[in-house]
Design goal:
With about 180 residues, the chain is an alpha+beta fold. It has 2 helices and 4 strands, in the order ααββββ.
């Protein structure tokens, strides 16, 4: 009887250890999957937001990346809606958009994630439109610099897809 009990405990310990290892591997898999999805949403969404401001569009297609409740509150997109956009006189043909995710956390069983990112646009390809050349000094013929910033981001999972719900604490960032 003693040998049978020791044999059962031997297999029970090994089975418990195996279950713990498989549980940790599953947790790591889902965390990594969420991290990859969140990074893609942040990178593509912030680039589309930048292009929407620079090309003076209302931001069509941003609803794939941002929650519908956030878009009316965005400060940079408000420049387009208000007509105070500094990029109106310029024809933007391309940008060098860089985003770095400094920190991210999302539990696999929750629908909310937090991240800290930095955004830079070191290069803007564009020129002043012909109709604005007489009104603007020649020193201002190249587009103004996009202000680099660090954001605290809150994301939510809606219908199985991550959306940026809020960009908080916009702080100037000098690389």
């Amino acid at each position: 009887m003693k040998k049978l009990r020791r044999l059962v405990w031997f297999f029970a310990k090994r089975l418990l250890l195996l279950a713990a290892i498989l549980g940790l591997m599953t947790l790591a898999f889902y965390f990594s999957m969420n991290a990859a999805n969140i990074f893609v949403i942040l990178k593509d969404g912030m680039a589309q937001r930048t292009l929407a401001v620079m090309m003076n569009t209302e931001g069509e297609g941003l609803d794939k990346y941002f929650s519908a409740a956030y878009l009316p509150m965005d400060k940079r997109l408000a420049l387009v809606r208000d007509g105070t956009n500094p990029y109106i006189p310029y024809q933007i043909t391309g940008i060098d958009h860089r985003l770095r995710m400094e920190w991210m956390w999302a539990w696999p069983w929750e629908d909310t994630a937090r991240a800290t990112i930095t955004e830079q646009v070191p290069g803007i390809d564009g020129r002043i439109k012909a109709s604005y050349r007489e009104r603007v000094a020649q020193e201002q013929w190249s587009p103004p610099r996009w202000p680099s910033a660090r954001y605290d981001v809150i994301l939510v999972r809606e219908n199985g897809q991550w959306h940026i719900r809020e960009l908080r604490n916009e702080r100037a960032y000098n690389p």
